[in-house]
Design goal:
about 675 residues, Jelly Rolls, alpha+beta, single chain, Immunoglobulin-like
């Protein structure tokens, strides 16, 4: 029996043996990519995920602030996977750090100097793809920040009979998005070519990886996107759908949305509920404002499971998105020159360019100025006269708003802006306690004069650091106003002065209060919000398990989490609890007061007639109920200017020429009371 065992040992295949190859070091420089190469020479001509392949990668790195580094391994056939990215925070060094997919702990949850064996952030098994392993393997280290340089001291590769495998998804209740770039890593920029397929068998049906691509299948161009999120292991992507001619926009309808060619795959890495953006966009849409449509999905990129993503629309001019007229190069005069423009306030990450700086300082105590960027069209696409038009229009509004007569109902700020859009934008940013709120990812757009010509606040964008998910600048608190941001956290990007200035108009504050009450009885009711959150959490129950197996960060601090739940349900419970407490505080501290929405119920001697009307509207009041201000709004909240004939205790409004529909009449009395009346114009 012993001799037989001896014989078996002798004939064991050579693939069972561990074979290690070592490489030397190199310097790591700020804002550069450093490489080191190992030449592998094995008797085997094939590596796979079953019999023989890459098992372990080990390295030693001397570098402070490890989070600056992205570490990748490139195989001879150019297949690339990520060992680590953005880990370690401000900690230093990797000492005898090894990566193996069988490790019990991910590098994501380890601590410096990471001595021992960890699962990598990427899928090591991608290189075990049947390729010939012999040739050059390259360690690739990118240092994305300054002030901290270091060295790769040494590294090694070990091949054996327990090769690394790839995590995948075979079925999901969510649509499955499959992206193939032929093994090429998706860069920050420029976009690279790829193929995308989407499996979507409809709500309530299971999607299997071997099902046909029934939602979409075709060519795309794709790149990484994001600012602070760019350092997270799970990357977000911007993509374009493309047809045979890449110079022509190839618009497609995904999930029955309006056709377009620009899309976002958002990675909810730091938002462990995975739904903060979706919740906010839902509130925006339910409030009558366009916000990006969203779809939860599970994603595979080049055969690697990438986790749960949110596929969403990108902000741009389009009848199905920001519904303003397209500004063409030849639109240089009259009505065509007046729109449409989309402007933003944001960081300069990703190629952003300041188009102009406001001549007015940010909200006190800040002394900074606000930089405006052109979003659509981009600055390089604008004619000089177009650029001057939008810059001057916004500057004129700021000048009016900062002036002594800013609240004049005819000539004041309301003649420049869509007031209701500003109110909705403010309330949603305040509800979410958005630390970026008014100062980053903040958009304005301008319609043509023929479409109203007003400056509109929005669309909403980038709400992952909201609802208590920020441990800086008081973002975790359920109390306080983001409007006051500059007072307690200014010094970088600061809030524009507009928001606090608008609230200095008592009429505006009243409208804010009334709108808050209206929303609290609808989309912002506790029951409505909880029902929406629960509906998404239920859908995510199974996908969340896979997502957090891929990204094992539950129970682990990820910048800038203020709460760290040990389970997905704890993350959802925290979100709901935080929102409930925030609603209580805002209910108790809301600006202005909303008194009497029905004039008849007030019985104060005011008569408005006839309703419905076609040409003239008469307003009469008693001596004790003097009206000092009258404003008319359409159903979307846009201020309407009409001619008025004022007599002793009466006023006649000329509404001839207004489009038929529902309008809101706002009456301000001398005693400070504000009353509303719904009108119908036939």
């Amino acid at each position: 029996m012993k001799s037989l065992l001896f014989l078996v040992l002798i004939v064991m295949p050579i693939s069972a043996r561990l074979q290690t190859f070592s490489g030397g070091g190199t310097s790591i420089f700020d804002f550069q990519t450093t490489t080191s190469t190992i030449n592998v020479s094995l008797p085997q001509s094939t590596i796979d995920m079953t019999n023989f392949g890459l098992e372990t990668v080990c390295l030693n790195i001397n570098h402070t602030w490890l989070a600056d580094l992205t570490i990748e391994l490139v195989a001879p056939d150019a297949t690339t996977f990520q060992l680590a990215s953005g880990v370690g925070g401000s900690d230093d060094f990797m000492t005898n750090t090894c990566f193996n997919t069988s490790a019990s702990q991910s590098i994501l949850v380890g601590t410096s100097p990471f001595t021992g064996t960890y699962k990598p952030t990427g899928s090591m098994g991608l290189v075990n793809n049947g390729q010939n392993p012999n040739g050059n393997w390259t360690m690739k280290i990118t240092d994305s920040y300054g002030a901290d340089e270091g060295n790769l001291l040494n590294w090694s590769l070990t091949f054996g009979s327990s090769p690394a495998t790839v995590m995948t998804v075979t079925s999901s209740n969510l649509p499955i998005v499959v992206i193939n770039t032929n093994g090429v890593n998706i860069p920050d920029e420029p976009k690279i070519d790829g193929i995308m397929g989407i499996i979507n068998n409809g709500p309530g049906n299971l999607n299997n990886i071997n099902d046909p691509f029934n939602e979409f299948f075709g060519e795309i161009a794709i790149e990484q996107r994001g600012s602070s999120s760019a350092s997270f292991p799970q990357r977000s992507y911007g993509l374009e759908t493309r047809g045979p001619d890449p110079t022509i926009n190839y618009n497609v309808s995904l999930f029955d949305w309006p056709a377009d060619n620009d899309w976002i795959l958002y990675a909810p890495y730091t938002d462990k509920s995975m739904i903060r953006n979706m919740l906010t966009y839902h509130i925006g849409n339910a409030s009558g404002r366009w916000a990006p449509r969203t779809q939860l999905c599970e994603v595979l990129i080049n055969g690697e499971y990438a986790g749960v993503y949110v596929l969403m629309e990108r902000i741009k001019q389009n009848p199905g998105r920001v519904d303003i007229d397209e500004l063409l190069p030849e639109d240089v005069a009259d009505n065509e020159l007046s729109g449409g423009y989309i402007v933003k306030i944001d960081k300069l990450t990703g190629g952003g360019v300041i188009a102009w700086n406001s001549p007015y300082t940010a909200s006190a105590p800040s002394t900074a100025t606000i930089g405006y960027q052109m979003h659509d069209p981009e600055l390089s696409e604008l004619q000089t006269v177009q650029f001057n038009y939008i810059r001057n229009k916004i500057t004129q509004w700021e000048a009016n708003l900062s002036g002594p007569n800013f609240s004049d109902p005819v000539t004041g700020y309301a003649s420049y802006i869509d007031v209701q859009s500003f109110i909705d934008y403010m309330l949603i940013n305040e509800l979410s306690k958005n630390v970026d709120g008014y100062r980053l990812s903040a958009f304005l757009y301008k319609q043509r004069v023929s479409e109203g010509g007003k400056i509109v606040a929005g669309p909403l964008w980038d709400f992952n650091l909201t609802y208590g998910n920020a441990d800086y600048c008081q973002g975790w608190l359920t109390t306080g106003w983001e409007l006051d941001f500059n007072s307690y956290c200014g010094g970088g990007w600061d809030n524009p002065f507009w928001w606090k200035r608008l609230l200095q108009d008592p009429w505006y504050a009243t409208q804010v209060n009334c709108r808050w009450q209206e929303l609290r009885n609808g989309v912002l009711s506790n029951s409505s919000l909880n029902a929406y959150i629960d509906s998404l959490a239920n859908v995510l129950a199974s996908p969340a398990t896979r997502h957090y197996e891929k990204w094992p960060i539950l129970g682990v601090y990820v910048w800038p989490n203020s709460f760290v739940g040990n389970t997905y349900q704890e993350e959802i419970d925290f979100l709901k609890s935080w929102i409930n407490d925030r609603l209580i505080w805002m209910d108790a501290n809301m600006f202005g007061s909303c008194q009497g929405l029905s004039i008849e119920e007030q019985q104060i001697g005011i008569n408005v007639y006839p309703i419905p009307t076609k040409e003239k509207l008469t307003i009469e009041w008693s001596e004790d109920s003097e009206i000092v201000d009258v404003r008319l709004f359409d159903s979307k909240g846009a201020y309407i200017t009409v001619r008025a004939e004022i007599n002793d205790r009466s006023m006649i409004l000329d509404v001839l020429g207004l489009d038929p529909g529902i309008y809101i009449l706002d009456l301000k009395l001398a005693n400070g009371q504000t009353l509303k009346k719904k009108l119908i114009i036939e």
